[in-house]
Amino acid sequence: MTFSVLMSVYKSESPSHLQMAFESVWENQSIKPAQLVVVKDGPLSPQLDAVIARWQRDLGAVFELVVFAENRGLGAALNAGMQACRYDLVARMDTDDVALPERFEKQVDYLNANPEVDILGSFVREMTYAGDILGIRNAPIGHDEIVSCLWASPMVHPTIMMRRSRVLEAGNYDASCRRRQDYELWFRCAEKGLRFYNLPEPLLYYRFGKHTHKKQSPSLAWEQAMIGYRGAKRLGMPFYQRLACFLPFVRSLLPSTLQHLLYKMLSRFDPRRKA
Length: 275
Hints:
Elements: E1 3-9, H1 15-25, E2 35-41, H2 46-59, E3 63-68, H3 74-84, E4 89-92, E5 98-99, H4 103-113, E6 119-127, E7 133-137, H5 143-148, E8 161-163, H6 164-169, H7 181-191, E9 196-207, H8 218-234, H9 239-244, H10 247-252, H11 256-267
Parallel strand pairs: 1-2, 1-4, 2-3, 6-9
Antiparallel strand pairs: 4-8, 5-9, 6-7, 6-8
Helix pairs in contact: 1-2, 7-8
């Protein structure tokens, strides 16, 4: 079955990481996408533009570039990118991660064999910014388990392969969400009855720490908390789970040293537990 890959590039990203990401979704895959949609979210560095131009030249009609004149945020970029995708199966990929060689083959095979599943993720192998392997991060596997802890973001966004038609029925990515657009989308998808599943094996090298250890501003953390609280409330989740959505906001108010300590304490209860 043919499928699209959807990526978005921002000016601060690493050209070498982008090159590795492109290699992993094309040269190193056991099956190749029929379309690679790349959204330029505003002007890029000359080095990033050079990487994109080289792949656009080499892949020809497979490579589709969507260009924003100014930075509009990841929600808007993915919203436009989904509309540009031509195939119903769409694989998300971040521009600093590395897909394992059989990722797409295993996800396509599973979705073909399980037409009731709409959004498919997997475990990940975490790595540092420099590429050192940290370990495997597991995740809830079945639909009911995933939805019951949706407040904790149990789907690792760049591992996702999804049915475009079903996600568009749920409203697509919210173009107004500059951060946590996946978190917001999954709540709407669950409300619309879409089915989730995580393959119980790592299919992606994920650069852990790229967001986690940055000091998130209280305003962005509050926005994330409200997305989670409202979504959990709409799904009828217990009150303690709704309150737990505010933990990132509390963490954002702390000094950096205490933020890291709180993160380590809370990671013991993370449904995306490490192995």
